[in-house]
Structures are given as structure tokens and as C-alpha cells.
Amino acid sequence: MYRKCLESRLLQRMTTKTVYSVSLFDAIHMLAASWDSLSQETTANCFGKASFSTMPEELPVVSLDTVEESDSIWAEVKKRLGVTNI
């Protein structure tokens, strides 16, 4: 959708023979509009194809007061996702 928006703006500027540039603000606006145009079903399908749709069980919510605690939680996340090396 972002590409479609960008191409549409470019074509509009070519028709009016004006210089076209994309500011950071314009790019963020187009990205937000593109994201908002997606249906929940499309988003769910994309996450599903990327294997983000299900977790074996919910991870515990804890505060990360120490580095050791953070390392322990990260190890548990990797174990539950079946990741051996990151």
C-alpha cells in the first residue's frame, strides 16, 4: 500500500510537472495510512505465515531488575521458541 501511495503521488506530480520529494513526515504519514488500510485478517495472515501467530503458552510478566534475571528470561524465551542460537 505504501508503494501504491508513493507511485500515486509521483504520478500526480509528473502530471502537474512539479518537483517531487518525500520528506520524513510525508513518508511516516504514508506508512501510517498504509498500515491503517490493512484489515485485521490480512495482518493475522502475515503474522501466521511468519510463525508469530501462536505461542506454546503465555510468557510470565516480570520486572527486569538485574542482568541475570534478563538473561534467564531470554533463555526461557529461546527455549520456548525452539531457537538454539541467536
The helix fraction, in percent, is 55-70%
Mean pLDDT: 76
Order of helices and strands: HHHH
- Proportion of beta-strand residues: under 5%
Sequence stretches where pLDDT stays below 50 over 5 or more residues: none
Structural class: mainly alpha
Largest sheet: none
What separation lies between the terminal Cα atoms? 32 Å
What's the helix count? Answer: 4
List the helices and strands and how they pair.
Elements: H1 2-16, H2 24-37, H3 40-49, H4 67-81
Question: Care to describe what's here?
Answer:
This protein is mostly helical and 86 residues long. It folds into two domains: 1-50, no CATH class; 55-86. It contains four helices and no strands. It is elongated. The two termini are 32 Å apart. The model has no long low-confidence stretch (mean pLDDT 76).
Descriptive terms for the model:
single chain, 86 residues, mainly alpha, 2 domains, 0% strand, elongated
Summarize the structure.
The protein is mainly α.
